[in-house]
Amino acid sequence: MKKRFNDKVAIVTGGASGIGLAVSRALIAEGAKVLIVDINAEGAERLERQLGKHAKACCADVSSEVDWKMLTDQVIKWRGKLDLVCNVAGIGRSGSIEDIRLEDWDAMIAVNLTGTMLGCKHGVRAITESNGNGAIINMSSVGGLAGTADLAAYNMTKAGVVSLTKSVALHCAVQRYPIRCISIHPTFVDSEMLDPVAAAAGIDRATLVAGMTKQVPVGRVAKPEDIANAVLFAASEEASMISGSSIIVDGAQLAGIPSGHPA
User: Fold this and answer.
1) Could you give the domains of the chain?
2) Is the predicted pLDDT of residue 196 greater than 80, yes or no?
3) Helix, strand and coil percent figures for the chain, each rounded to 5
């Protein structure tokens, strides 16, 4: 049986853990060759060993344009072309508009927004120059579509990803490039990214997840695999008429206020 991505070559940033790891596994299971990119070189190399010959690890800083040029050159040297870019790498730090620290603001802009922009810029170039055909998938958040009192900077970066995605999608369409661009918007995801959040709150991860679960109408937070499945669809030919759009994976969190809510 033919797999959906048998002839596709992908870059996945943040690929050593959480959503990025799940996306890397899922793409390879569907036949893709994946360059696993992460600032955590040891984690990326460990995953390469686990996934075998269709995976290759690369340590890089997504906020560096020099690193992005290196990444795209490396993937084309490795597999001859590039079809898919999954901009998953991201960081989250809390803070309301009154207490957000400038260094946290700058760090999140660098990784979440500049890193995604560079992935789009160099992804478009590499896909077109190597005669690839596919999509750029940008990881946003429900926080990119709705505000949160104590996540002012994080939400701003994820909202920026929404607008960036639309601009990239329109540019590629106007240029008749064989590239679509889609943003994915997860609710809370039970991954390693919650560990520093729990530590900052002074609680264990299980307690944090239990509190988050109460905010998701379907009764659970997302697993990394839930988000990876959305990425697989967005990147596949099944979504060939979807570009510039947002795919929301939120368990009805943004649908409205459930009945029986407290007055």
Assistant:
1) 9-186+224-247 (3.40.50.720), 189-221 (no CATH)
2) no
3) 45, 15, 35
